[in-house]
Specification:
133 residues, alpha/beta, Rossmann fold, 4-stranded parallel beta sheet, 4 helices, 4 strands
Length: 133
């Protein structure tokens, strides 16, 4: 059986989608594999997000934000957007996708980034359980 492919999309691919991808690939146990992309990728992963993920035991400091391409979508079984549901800002919302409605960690203090990280982990765990059914 072919492994499912999940694509997490947000505007800058420097926070929420990187967190989701890292947790998913750590926790999925091979049931599926995740990648991420952004509609306007940043130059690097948000350093506060990277620090919060290190606290959770996952190092994403070397991850690189990527531009969302049509090929990525075509080669994916499921697209999840991260709360960038405004079409003018996140054209990814025009894809057939579910949106998790997550707050953007950009510019937030580390305490808030931790809350967002933990919310994403919870949603990722739910997605993995759904895929295992």
């Amino acid at each position: 059986m072919k492994r499912k492919r999940i694509l997490f999309v947000c505007v800058h691919n420097s926070g929420r989608s990187q967190i989701a991808t890292a947790f998913f690939n750590r926790l999925a146990g091979g049931v599926a594999v995740a990648t991420s992309a952004g509609t306007s990728p940043a130059a690097q992963v948000n350093p506060i997000v990277a620090g919060a993920m290190l606290e959770a035991g996952i190092d994403i400091r070397g991850a690189k934000p990527e531009l969302l391409t049509p090929e990525m979508v075509e080669n994916t079984d499921r697209v999840v957007t991260m709360g960038c549901g405004v079409a003018e800002v996140c054209p990814g919302s025009l894809l057939p996708a579910e949106d998790w409605g997550l707050e953007d960690p950009a510019g937030k203090p580390v305490e808030k980034v931790r809350e967002i990280r933990d919310e994403i982990r919870s949603k990722v765990e739910g997605l993995i359980q759904e895929l295992q059914r």
